[in-house]
Specification:
By secondary structure, this protein is α+β, with helices and mostly antiparallel strands. Helices cover 26% and strands 24% of the residues.
């Protein structure tokens, strides 16, 4: 997920997805040196149907004045 507000916490990030199903982990990626958000994060949801619903619902949603971009992670 990208285009996160830079002030978003891990808990807030998880809350966005928890409204659509069970979340096993949610983490906002932070800069190692400054500790500030880099504007993107990763979420793991154990139930595929809930994850797909979350992706379709949250993608484009405005949070903190920023439209969120959500895509499913693909293996390299």
């Amino acid at each position: 997920m990208s285009n996160l507000p830079y002030t978003m916490t891990d808990e807030e990030f998880q809350g966005v997805f928890a409204a659509h199903g069970q979340v096993s982990s949610a983490r906002v990626v932070k800069d190692r040196e400054t500790g500030r958000s880099r504007g993107f994060g990763f979420v793991e949801m154990p139930v595929e149907s809930e994850a797909l619903t979350a992706i379709n619902t949250i993608n484009g949603m405005d949070v903190g004045g920023r439209p969120l971009r959500v895509v499913e992670a693909k293996p390299k």
